[in-house]
Amino acid sequence: MRAILLGPPGAGKGTQAETIVNEFKIPHVSTGDMFRKNIKEQTQLGKKVKSYLDKGALVPDELTVEIVKDRISQVDCKNGFLLDGFPRTLEQANALDNVLSELGQKLDYVINIEVDSKLLIDRAVGRRICKDCGQTYHLLFNKPTKEGVCDKCGGELYQRKDDTEETVANRINVYQNQTQPLIEYYTNKGCIININGEQSIDKVSRDIISNLRGE
Ligand code: ADP
Ligand code: AMP
């Protein structure tokens, strides 16, 4: 299965990606995670993209398309993958169409997680992530058993630098201006699945999985 997770910042894409990739045994390809890893490791790419992530602006399309092209051309993506946070512009969507046609592959689904923008700031500002395994929590909606400690691996939880109220507001704006047009783009292609993302994490997961299974 080749699928995309679409939705505003804080909609629950990363949270739901975990369930979907476990269920369908496909790699999780998150451009945000790839950029953060490069920043942490201070690679050339990391140095180029840091200022964009810090501001909540989009990384230029050429850099973003390049890392996705490299990643989905790898052997573990041959039978499918889940893209999370890509594409985010119409240019990226067109570039993805071209890459897939070069690889002789077809996109199956675009899972669009719908959440009202009023809820997004609280979701993103309360997000906490394990610095060792990347597991996502929320201070109110998805608490770890012990404050500040990952249930899965015991790692320390941290807050993303771009999860401040001001930067999240900017990211929501960027989403509305640059990414939202993709909903129409993929609706016209007939592959979109709209999911109510304002329900509990478990209910959202069940809705996504049953739609993907065609139930
Ligand atoms: P995205 O990847 O779309 O930016 P995340 O999956 O990281 O979003 O979720 C953002 C925050 O909201 C996280 O702290 C997560 O635990 C929480 N969250 C995710 N889905 C829900 C939900 N259905 N209800 C309440 N909180 C949620
Ligand atoms: P995310 O982890 O999806 O919330 O993304 C975090 C940040 O990474 C975004 O605010 C952008 O700066 C950058 N980013 C992630 N994916 C993309 C993309 N497809 N295009 C441009 N920038 C991106």
Explain this structure.
The chain has helices at residues 13-24, 31-40, 44-55, 61-72, 90-103, 117-125, 165-179, 181-189, 201-212, and strands at 2-6, 28-30, 81-84, 109-114, 127-130, 136-138, 157-158, 192-196. It has 215 residues and is an alpha/beta fold. The chain has a single domain (2-116, 168-212), classed as Rossmann fold (3-Layer(aba) Sandwich). The chain has a five-stranded parallel sheet with strand order 2-3-1-4-8, sandwiched between helices. Helix 2 (31-40) crosses helix 3 (44-55), helix 4 (61-72) runs parallel beside helix 5 and helix 6 packs across helix 7. It starts with a strand and ends with a helix. The relative contact order is 0.19. The protein binds adenosine-5'-diphosphate and adenosine monophosphate (AMP). Adenosine monophosphate (AMP) binds at residues 9, 31-32, 35, 52-53, 56-59, 64, 85-88, 92, 162, 171. Adenosine-5'-diphosphate binds next to helix 1, helix 6, strand 6 and helix 9.
